[in-house]
Amino acid sequence: MITRPTLHKATRILNRRAHSSVSADELSHFSSLASSWWDPMGPSRVLHLMNPLRHDFIASCLASGPPSTTNITSDNTSDKHDTNSNKNNKNTLRYLDVGCGGGIFAESLARTIPSTPNASATRTQAGSITAIDPTTALIQIARDHARTDPHVTSHVQTGKFTYRNCTLEDLIAEKQQQQGGDGEKFDVVTLFEVIEHVDTNASSSPLGFLTNCLRLLRPGGWLIGSTIARTFPSFLVNQVIAEAPWPVGVVPRGTHEWSKFVNPDELEGWAQEGLMRAADKGGVVAGAQALDGMRWVCEGVVYFPGFGWKLVPGSENWGNYFWAVRKGV
Ligand SMILES: C[S@@+](CC[C@H](N)C(=O)[O-])C[C@H]1O[C@@H](n2cnc3c(N)ncnc32)[C@H](O)[C@@H]1O
Fold first, then answer.
1. Where are the domains of the chain?
2. Pair type for strands 126-132 and 93-98
3. CB 138 near ligand 1, within 6 Å
4. Which of 10, 22, 50, 192 sits between 20 and 30 A of 4, alpha carbons compared?
5. The overall pTM is greater than 0.90
6. Tens digits of residue pLDDT in 294-314
7. Residue 36 carries which DSSP code?
């Protein structure tokens, strides 16, 4: 006989699935890549090669507009505690890495968290990182790999670096339960090569996903990502050439669906709409004032075989690009 608690639990899980941005096909595709994720010559090779540029791009965003840490104490008590314990530490930014996969970026960022409070600030100023991904096999690989570096392991042990196997929607629901629906927020949310994998269904869209990322961002904070434009050159490069059989192709067949790629102007529009939606509170609809102080940055990147990824200003519509939105203070 099915008991009432079991029925409630099953209903909760079904409701969560119905509102999930994660598609079963994506989960199965990424699970199949887990065992080779950290092979620098394997199917995730282009992600490994792109990683140093991510640090450069984040550093340039932070240099152009630092997250306003003056708001930290007014937001909530756990932030207050963090500020006090970090008062000598210049690396105080809280990062959330959404869709972290096997940890290529998250782990490299964790390596920049200083071990001592008096150490000088690093370019990305990471003080802590929470990295989330819905693919269980990838989170397992990420946790295993973190254990191979004692410096990273020490941050896992102190709770400064955490991997979680959950969806963005799970995290939002959790935060809404904390502190009257406005739980702790992050200074920087990163979203590298993820938005083009978000499921579009009756209750999920890339705009809704982006809005959820912005909801988790502190005023003055940055949402930073990379994705691929939906243009003819990107079709040729990212679908035809990149997914061609070895030795031409550099990513596994089925990694991308060209129709899910996002153009820079579309993404900028979603960022604006997302900021307004994220500012809506209890029936009060936030208008254009939610865009006050917003910043938008977008830079194209091109992969040159033998040389790696390079920033190429003006190439945003050719294919891959970095983008960032700063929430007004
Ligand atoms: C191309 S990988 C990028 C991984 C990582 N961000 C990196 O660049 O190294 C895409 C990741 O997005 C995750 N993903 C797919 N759909 C997602 C969703 N709806 N929400 C969050 N993550 C998702 C996958 O599990 C996978 O780890």
1. 23-326
2. parallel
3. yes
4. 22
5. no
6. 999 999 999 888 888 999 999
7. G
